[in-house]
Write a structure and sequence with these properties.
Layout: H1 23-38, H2 50-61, H3 66-82, H4 86-91, H5 93-103, H6 111-130, H7 137-163, H8 175-197, H9 206-212, H10 215-226, H11 234-248
Helix pairs in contact: 1-2, 2-3, 3-5, 3-6, 5-6, 6-7, 6-8, 7-8, 8-10, 8-11, 10-11
Length: about 260
């Protein structure tokens, strides 16, 4: 199954475009992405973005533009994550790290550069999500810890960029909102898994203690509120509302705060 959520939240964010060199790649990706949405995640991971991956390979062979090559590396990595190909995504860590170096010197930091920067955490989160199926309670706890760490890492990076004044206006670049929504999805997943992963005897474990206090749910709620989309984004808005509603149903949780407090 295609991992449309939470990684779907990054799908449109990675499309920033670099002119004619990536026009075919962009159009192909958008078409396949829409088909994947229509299929409700039932398409085969091996074929869902086959045309996009082929277009990326063609574009890569036809250009030496470092900006285009960096963009293609980020998009390829995100496509692999979206289809649940964690091994393939892990194999691109070096390429995306190079893309992050090429793109990350800009201020404000555009969404492609942001995604490249947090890509190792997205891969870690994708791996933790993929390992949940059929996992034992001990494996779920370990996976929850890894997923929570990935979410916290993304949150920390967003807060550092905001503090440095390096995030773009959300009305023109939705990268921060997409990244925050993905990190929040990780944290909300940890909260949801706590009942399966943690037993009373595990309360001393950090991930279980935090889950018992609903700290991951609170962090997820505050993160989406701190980095909202600046333009209409139904998927992001719906995800934030879902997390906020879950938090509202829990008595005794602290009031919403800035996630970068």
């Amino acid at each position: 199954m295609i991992r449309l959520l939470p990684l779907i939240l990054l799908g449109c964010a990675v499309i920033s475009g670099f002119g004619d060199d990536v026009r075919t790649v962009r159009a192909t990706y958008e078409a396949e992405f829409e088909r994947a949405l229509t299929a409700h995640g039932t398409a085969s991971p091996k074929t869902a973005f086959a045309d996009t991956l082929a277009a990326i390979a063609t574009a890569r062979s036809d250009t030496e533009d470092p900006g285009v090559l960096a963009y293609l590396s980020v998009l390829e990595g995100m496509v692999l994550l979206q289809t649940g190909d964690v091994a393939g995504a892990e194999a691109r860590l070096g390429d995306v790290a190079a893309a992050a170096q090429a793109l990350g010197r800009q201020t404000p930091v555009p969404r492609d550069a942001l995604l490249a920067d947090i890509y190792p955490d997205l891969v870690a989160g994708g791996a933790a999500l993929a390992a949940r199926d059929g996992a034992s309670a001990a494996e779920l706890r370990a996976g929850a810890d890894a997923l929570a760490q990935a979410g916290r890492n993304v949150q920390g990076r967003l807060c550092a960029l905001r503090s440095a004044g390096r995030l773009p206006d959300p009305a023109t670049d939705g990268g921060a909102a997409y990244a925050a929504a993905t990190a929040a999805s990780y944290l909300a997943s940890v909260d949801a898994d706590a009942g399966l992963a943690c037993r009373p005897a595990d309360d001393a474990l950090p991930v279980c203690a935090a889950a018992a206090a609903r700290q991951h749910l609170v962090a997820a709620r505050d993160l989406t509120a701190t980095f909202p989309p600046g333009t209409p984004a139904p998927a992001l808005t719906a995800r934030a509302a879902e997390i906020a509603a879950r938090a509202d149903r829990q008595p005794g949780l602290p009031a919403p705060e800035d996630a970068c407090r």
